[in-house]
Amino acid sequence: MRVEYRVLGPLEVLLDGVPVTVPAGRCRVLLGTLLLRANEFVSVDEIVERLWDGVPPSADRAGKTLHMVVTRLRQALGVASCVRTRPGGYVAVVEPEQLDLLRFRAHLKTGEHAAATALWRGPVLANVPSESLHRDLVPALVEERLAALEKRIDDDLELGVAAELVPELRTLTTRHPVHEVFWAQLMLALHRSGQQADALATYQEVTAVLGEQLGVTPGPRLREAQQQVLAGEIPSGAVLVPSHHHVPRQLPTALPHFVGRERELDRLDAVLASGQLVINGSGGIGKTSLAVQWAHRIAGRFPDGQLYSDLRGFDPTGAPVNPISTARDFLLALGVPADEIPAATEAMLESYRTLLSRLQVLVLLDNVRDVAQVRPLLPGGSQSLAVITSRNRLRGLVTQDRAFQLDVLGPEESMMLFGGRVGAHRVAEEPAAAARLVELCAGLPLALAVVAARATLDQHPLGMLVQELEHAALDALDTDDPLTSVRAVFSWTFGWLSPVAARLFVLLGLHPGPDVTEPAATSLMAQPSADALDELVRYSLINSQNGRYRLHDLMRSYAAEEAALRLSAAERADAQRRFFDHLMHSALAAAVRSDPLRQPITTPDPAPGAVVLAFEVSTDADRWYAEERAVFGPAVVAAGEAGFDGHVWRTVWAIRHFLLATGRWREGERLQRLAVTAARRAGDLEGECRARRGLVSCLVPGREFDEAERQLRAAVALDERLGDLIGLSNDLRGLAYLLARQDEHLRALDPLLRALDVAMRSGDRIELASVSASLAFVHHELGDHHEAAAHAEQARDMYLELVPDERDTVVASNRDTLGSIYRALGRYEEAEANYLRSVELQATLSYRHYQADTLVRLADMKRDLGELDAARGYYLAALDVYDDLGNAQADDVRELLASLN
Hints:
Strand content: 5-15%
InterPro entries: AfsR-DnrI-RedD_regulator, BTAD, OmpR/PhoB-type_DNA-bd, P-loop_NTPase, Sig_transdc_resp-reg_C-effctor, TPR-like_helical_dom_sf, TPR_rpt, WH-like_DNA-bd_sf
Oligomer: single chain
TPR repeats: 812-845
Family: Belongs to the AfsR/DnrI/RedD regulatory family.
Domain OmpR/PhoB-type: 17-92
Protein name: BTAD domain-containing putative transcriptional regulator
């Protein structure tokens, strides 16, 4: 027998879940009074006060009436009665789990604010008519509820809930017009749902209300909310949980000879905290070096890792990096599975900020162009820190004490840096020459590093280097612009390079950035580049890290100018073709490993001298994709601008699988649209068709079905013109998939039956297997399980022939479908075998969400068969995955587990 009492709303008593009628009138007042003071003694005098609202009859009559009320209440409640007599009064004896008020308070103690507020069903004792009860005891409970609501809404805001809170908070501010916390929360909810103007208007509204009703001005919580709105705080988001504990260490290597910035380092130490700080200054002044040095110095204070991104705000050869793409990269680096990252931009950014708000992470955002570029990447919460470098001041992003204007090095600091590189003995031998070299570098660390590298490598007398540099810097002597000195240093050093290294430096001006590999450099040169790269590193013209080479922005600008001056148009075009061939053909080779069932494309041979990489296994291909990801976008844009339209659509075709597998739908959509434009510009029907089909795959995750259908129908028309049967079948399968995603399974049959006919005429077994798998799924959804089984088995057999190890997502999906079909047909052993095979494949393919979905279907089958222990095991396995991913379906699985008991 289970008895439950409820006072947080209308008074209710439940016996084994069935309501027990509590007589109206004084019986309800008596029970309500005792339950609000549960397990406490309540005197007869107090109860009489409640029963008659302060105007009781004579003591004798009141006593007799109270006794009758108690007797009647006990009779009505029967075995559910909790009323016990004590000398001089009564007490309601209840266990903590029996009374919603006690459970409410227990939840508050453990921080379960949502569970606490969920217990409230309306006004306390709404069906109990007692003025004194509602005057004396209920108001304190109302305050408890308001405090709990504040905390629950704070929790929701922390989790990224925003727009959904606005209606509730508007109601709360109407009911409680001088409750400042609700107004502050309303402001944040409005702002975080994109309604900044309304948020600021709300502040004006509450200011007026407080002034008129209380004669006061807004308190700290409201003022803080206003500052957050004005500062443009980015909304936090739904919680993402990394699939494994991964601590990223992305900071670039610190300089081995970092000197001359001790004062700046001390200043940074003095303001170390959470939030963000900005280091700004002109190009070449050492912002990145200082930020990296300090980041390494404080990295131990951020145990959850360090994230780094060069946002290329001033890169001369490419557009600034999209912060949305960077946020997705950071989530992946933190261990969040790609298929768990939201496709929608706002949801993804909310997820990013919320995850970082729960971690202690250092985020170094380098080379930022403006506030709009960096704001989405700022971590939420009070434990993480963002360090930002920019040539611009980024006004409004941070307070004055957290903005650091970096100046050129002074003479002493410059000499410390220079002497640390070339050696104190050489400075002592030629102090005047050393001082002049330092002066010619104008206090810029980049120039000092290049000059020191030259002095160290060549070992010429410093006086001779002064003469050479003064000659190169004649134009700089009449200007106060330090960047002119930098360019003079570049020109002077360039003149001393070997012919091969000088040629490579110039050719690097054609590379779209942000960094270059040795195979890419070799392709630009059409000859081995390792020695030339090493020479450029020794002269500090490029930096090397993890097998990749990077030019400073100023150096890249100089290289690009030299390329325009020193190379003919034909030389530039040939070098670009070799590089684009290297990237395109390597990406195509990677696609063969990562997505072996894709229909191949026609591709011209690579130009002589272009390096084409080979990949033994899919993991090698995936690793290369990830390493080159930052190059793909700029390279595709550069190829289009240079007129290499075929390279545009073929490169995008080759990297589509990687972009989809890592959840980069929006980036893929942008590149696919560039591919469509390039193919149409070139009059390439095959390219246009492939690009439109690829665009569809990037539109579906955002449920842009109408646009996806338009693109597919355009592809159908193109494939019909081309006579491409395999492509046409693929298009028709895509149309069926769009319909199935919208639960239009019957309509999906028509394009699939057409696809089956086309695929059979094409003779391509991969396409025929894929059509069969699609038909199996649709027939199963329509309840035609025998027909579904025939198609699924045909697909399985063909896939086994084509991909013996079955390591492919469509193969794993077909196995899952086959399991569900066999279950519907009562072939339970075969169903279990196919479910388990799908689970095994999904695990190896890192699609853990789908793996858990299949485990749930298998557990459901076992439950229906009465095999509860097996069902429990599979549910628990699925629960482990969902919990690991932070997926809301974990709660559904817990309910299913509870139903087994």
